[in-house]
Design a protein that fits this description.
With 400 residues, this protein is of the alpha/beta class. The protein folds into two domains: 11-50 and 295-398, Alpha-Beta Complex (Aspartate Aminotransferase, domain 1), CATH 3.90.1150; 53-291, Type I PLP-dependent aspartate aminotransferase-like (Major domain) (Aspartate Aminotransferase, domain 2), CATH 3.40.640.10. Helix content is 40%, strand content 16%. The chain has helices spanning 18-21, 23-31, 53-64, 77-89, 103-115, 131-138, 158-163, 187-200, 258-274, 280-283, 286-291, 295-316, 342-353, 380-398, and strands at residues 37-38, 95-101, 121-126, 142-149, 155-156, 169-175, 203-207, 232-237, 250-255, 321-322, 331-332, 335-336, 355-356, 358-359, 372-375. An eight-stranded mixed beta sheet has the order 2-9-8-7-6-3-4-5, sandwiched between helices. It has a three-stranded antiparallel beta sheet with strand order 11-15-14, with helices on one face. It is globular. The protein starts with 17 loop residues before the first helix and ends with a helix. The model has no long low-confidence stretch (mean pLDDT 95).
Length: 400
C-alpha cells in the first residue's frame, strides 16, 4: 500500500511568526557569503548585555541543593510572593492569583486557551507582538486588530477599539511598552481601555515585559493599578528587564473582583496543573531578581537611550524612511515612504546588505502603509554601519 503524506492540522495554516521566519532569508544570504548584521530578534544577551551574576548564582545554588524536582504547578511560593510584592509596589491591589510559567509566552498561551472558544475574538494592537495572533489562530478564534496611531506616537485609538467590539469579543491585549513601536501609554489611554473592558466584560491582557526599560526618565503605569474592578492578567518575566531570555521564566498576575475571575482562573489553573510546572531551579532566580540591586537597569537604559537616538537620527536622515522615536523597550518601527511591499523590501535588503530586519506586515499595520522593525540592542558602531547600509540600499532601491 502506498503511503500518503501526513496532513497537518488545519489550525496551523494561519500561524506565522515573522521574527523567526525572516531567518530563512538570512540563512540563504549567509550561504552566499554575505556578512550578516542581525537586528531582528529582541535578545539582549546576543549583544553586550549580561545577566546579573546574583541571579545566575541563585539558579546554581538551587541545582546544587537538588531543587531539581517538579515544582508546584503555579510556581514555588518564594517566587510567587516576590511577584506579589513587586505587583503591590506598582499599585496592583486586587491580586487573585500569581502563576509562574515557561516564559511569558506560556502564560499568554495558557490564559488565552482558558478563555477562548472557536469563533470568539480578542482585540490585539496593530502593530503588536505576533505571538498573540499565532495563538489565537491556533485556537480557531479571531485575532481582531485595533490600530495604533502613528501620527500620535503610536498611541491606541480608543474610538477604533470601541468600533471593533461585538458579542464574540472576550478580551483585549495591551502591550505597554509596545513591541514593535516602543510606545509607552499614558494614564488617560489606559483608563479608556479599562472603561471599554468593564463595559463589555472583557479580560485585559496587559503585557508589561519591558516595564523597567522606559527611556528618558519616563514613567510606566501598570494597567491593573488603575482600577481594582477590572479583570486583568498582567504579564511579565525575567527575559527583558533582567536580561535572561534563555532562562524561559515568566509569570501572570491575575487581578480583579473574585465574582468576575473565579471560574476563569480555575480554568487557567487546570491547564497549569496539566503541564506540571515551569523549570524548578530557574524559579529561584525570581526573588533575587525582583528584590535585588537594580543597577543593571541604569546601565541598560543608558545604552538603549543612546542607541535609540542613533536609530531615530540616522533612519530619519534616509530619504524615503520616517521613524517615530520609541519611548521604551528596544524596538523602532520605521515607515517606508516609497511605494513598496515591506516583505519584498526586507528580502531585498537582506540579500543586498546582510542587514536583517523584520517586515512590518508581520506585526500588523494599517492598510496602505509599509514598515519594518529594527532592534537597536547592538553596539553603536554596529548600528551605525547597518543604518548606513540601509541608506545606501534605499538610494538604489528607490531609483528602480
Amino acid at each position: 500500500m502506498k503511503n500518503r503524506a501526513i496532513k497537518p492540522a488545519r489550525r496551523t495554516e494561519k500561524i506565522t511568526y515573522a521574527v523567526r521566519d525572516v531567518i530563512l532569508l538570512a540563512e540563504e544570504a549567509a550561504r552566499q557569503g554575505r556578512e550578516m548584521t542581525y537586528l531582528n530578534i529582541g535578545d539582549p544577551n546576543k549583544f553586550d548585555f549580561r545577566t546579573s551574576p546574583e541571579i545566575i548564582d541563585a539558579v546554581h545554588r538551587a541545582m546544587l541543593d537538588n531543587r531539581n524536582s517538579y515544582a508546584p504547578s503555579s510556581g514555588i511560593e518564594e517566587a510567587r510572593e516576590a511577584i506579589r510584592e513587586s505587583a503591590r509596589s506598582k499599585g496592583i491591589t486586587s491580586i487573585r492569583d500569581v502563576f509562574v510559567t515557561t516564559g511569558a509566552s506560556e502564560a499568554i498561551d495558557i490564559c488565552l486557551t482558558a478563555l477562548l472558544n472557536q469563533g470568539d475574538n480578542v482585540l490585539i494592537p496593530a502593530p503588536g507582538y505576533p505571538l498573540y495572533s499565532a495563538i489565537i489562530n491556533k485556537l480557531e478564534a479571531e485575532p481582531r486588530f485595533y490600530y495604533l496611531d502613528e501620527a500620535d506616537g503610536w498611541q491606541p485609538d480608543l474610538e477604533d477599539i470601541a468600533s471593533r467590539i461585538d458579542g464574540k469579543t472576550r478580551g483585549i491585549v495591551v502591550i505597554n511598552p509596545n513591541n514593535p513601536t516602543g510606545a509607552v501609554y499614558p494614564e488617560e489611554a489606559l483608563r479608556g481601555i479599562i472603561a471599554l473592558a468593564r463595559e463589555h466584560n472583557l479580560v485585559i491582557f496587559s503585557d508589561e515585559i519591558y516595564d523597567s526599560l522606559i527611556l528618558d526618565g519616563g514613567e510606566h503605569i501598570a494597567t491593573a493599578s488603575l482600577d481594582p474592578g477590572a479583570a486583568v492578567i498582567t504579564l511579565n518575566g525575567l527575559s527583558k528587564n533582567y536580561l535572561a531570555p534563555g532562562f524561559r521564566i515568566g509569570w501572570g498576575i491575575a487581578s480583579g473582583p473574585e465574582e468576575l475571575t473565579a471560574d476563569y482562573l480555575e480554568a487557567v489553573n487546570k491547564l497549569l496543573r496539566a503541564r506540571l510546572s515551569a523549570s524548578h531551579p530557574v524559579q529561584w532566580a525570581i526573588k533575587p531578581a525582583l528584590e535585588g540591586v537594580q543597577g543593571h537597569l541604569v546601565e541598560a537604559r543608558r545604552k538603549l537611550s543612546r542607541r535609540r537616538d542613533i536609530t531615530v537620527e540616522m533612519l530619519n536622515a534616509v530619504e524615503g524612511i520616517s521613524c517615530v522615536a520609541p519611548e521604551g523597550a528596544f524596538y523602532a518601527f520605521p515607515r517606508l515612504e516609497i511605494p513598496v511591499d515591506d516583505s519584498e523590501f526586507v528580502g531585498e535588503l537582506i540579500k543586498a546588505t546582510g542587514v536583517v530586519v523584520v517586515p512590518g506586515s508581520g506585526f500588523g499595520q494599517r492598510e496602505g502603509t509599509n514598515h519594518f522593525r529594527v532592534v537597536f540592542l547592538a553596539p553603536e558602531p554596529v548600528l551605525e554601519r547597518a543604518y548606513r547600509a540601509i541608506g545606501r540600499f534605499m538610494e538604489s532601491y528607490a531609483g528602480k
